């Protein structure tokens, strides 16, 4: 449990092993707020055990990370644009050559800034990580770890290791037809076909390493440790995963800075207190092609059901420009699920890992409206 309160040096260590010395830990995350938030909890746990944590992620999450008391390092890339691209290409196979070429510059910036996160000095001293933690979309995590000769640990919110039990989250119907386990190879090979030349350019020009012929299965061949921060009650560990892979449960963030609803969202607080608990409806970082149509359908559903609702506008700006009536509150800023969900009757969302974890942890009836991938 990343938010456990035992801070003893032997916590998590086998009996008889010496305590870990303070480590420099770099955590590199590419993705949405839902991808970043679990690592806030993990970073807090590492800090309590005496380690220094540098969390590297997109600039848009700078204040989110700093407000939670962690060191922040900016990596490039627009997560909203990345999400739009994933929604338009959910199987990771329908990329055209033109689209891949258009993303070359952005991807190289992500790769280079991920490396800088591992070598840029602090204001007072040189910096070198003792361990790198990254999620799979970073792509170059294993190449950076190789160049710096430091351990790497992959952590993620969804299954990303081949198994006969679950298909790859982004597998196309064609890949699924080959079976669950082989779907991982198909997706990884397509990603390598699109990004492999750029990764090799990064290896040669930035890291000074030789090029490799095929890197789609490198993480698996090297048996790099994986930790999945998802509940084994919801997603049990498959029997064909080795001992270097674990499923440890959801990681819940406990804010260092207390959320003051009276100051932050007085209008929302007034809405919540004015009637019965509402339904929460929100699709997080999902970017949709026709937000107006989706907004209208949500509003019509709420009206037909005769309920109250909090509609989180998210990156799609749901409800913008609509007269939603007095029974729907348009939420235009992030509010901690840990504060909001206990005040709601039920939750309807996109199936993102963080929102799913919060809704289930608070025992709320949950309706998932999936858009792509693991959802």
UniProtKB/TrEMBL annotation:
It comes from the Eukaryota. This is Glycosyltransferase family 28 N-terminal domain-containing protein. The keyword Transferase applies. Residues 25-167 form the Glycosyltransferase family 28 N-terminal domain. Keywords: Transferase. Gene3D superfamilies: Glycogen Phosphorylase B. The keyword Transport does not apply. InterPro entries: Glycosyltransferase_28 (IPR050426), GlycoTrans_28_N (IPR004276), UDP_glucos_trans (IPR002213). GO terms for biological process: carbohydrate metabolic process. Transmembrane segments: none annotated.
């Amino acid at each position: 449990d990343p938010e456990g309160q035992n801070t003893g040096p032997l916590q998590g260590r086998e009996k008889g092993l010496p305590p870990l010395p303070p480590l420099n830990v770099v955590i590199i995350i590419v993705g949405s707020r839902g991808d970043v938030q679990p690592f806030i909890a993990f970073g807090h746990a590492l800090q309590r055990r005496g380690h220094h944590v540098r969390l590297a992620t997109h600039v848009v999450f700078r204040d989110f990370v700093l407000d939670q008391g962690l060191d922040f390092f900016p990596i490039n890339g627009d997560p909203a644009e990345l999400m739009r691209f994933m929604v338009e290409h959910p199987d990771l196979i329908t990329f055209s050559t033109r689209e891949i070429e258009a993303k070359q510059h952005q991807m190289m910036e992500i790769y280079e800034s991920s490396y800088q996160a591992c070598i840029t000095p602090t204001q007072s001293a040189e910096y070198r990580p003792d361990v790198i933690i990254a999620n799979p979309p970073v792509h170059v995590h294993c190449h950076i770890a190789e160049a710096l000769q430091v351990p790497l640990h992959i952590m993620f919110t969804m299954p990303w290791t081949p198994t006969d039990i679950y298909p790859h989250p982004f597998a196309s119907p064609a890949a699924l037809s080959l079976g669950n386990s082989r779907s991982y190879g198909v997706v990884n090979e397509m990603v390598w076909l699109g990004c492999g030349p750029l990764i090799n350019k990064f290896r040669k020009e930035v890291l000074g390493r030789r090029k490799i012929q095929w890197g789609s299965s490198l993480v698996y061949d090297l048996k790099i440790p994986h930790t999945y921060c998802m509940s084994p009650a919801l997603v049990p560990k498959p029997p064909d995963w080795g001992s270097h892979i674990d499923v440890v449960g959801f990681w819940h963030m406990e804010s260092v800075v207390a959320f003051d609803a009276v100051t932050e969202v007085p209008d929302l607080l007034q809405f919540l207190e004015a009637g019965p608990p509402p339904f929460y409806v929100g699709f997080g970082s999902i970017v949709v092609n026709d937000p107006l149509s989706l907004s209208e359908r949500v509003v019509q559903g709420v009206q037909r059901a005769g309920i109250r609702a909090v509609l989180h506008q998210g990156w799609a700006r749901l409800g913008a420009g609509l007269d939603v009536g007095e029974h729907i509150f348009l939420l235009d800023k992030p509010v901690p699920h840990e504060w909001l969900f206990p005040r709601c009757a039920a939750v309807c969302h996109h199936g993102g890992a963080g929102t799913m974890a919060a809704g289930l942890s608070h025992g709320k009836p949950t309706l998932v409206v999936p858009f792509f991938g693991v959802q």
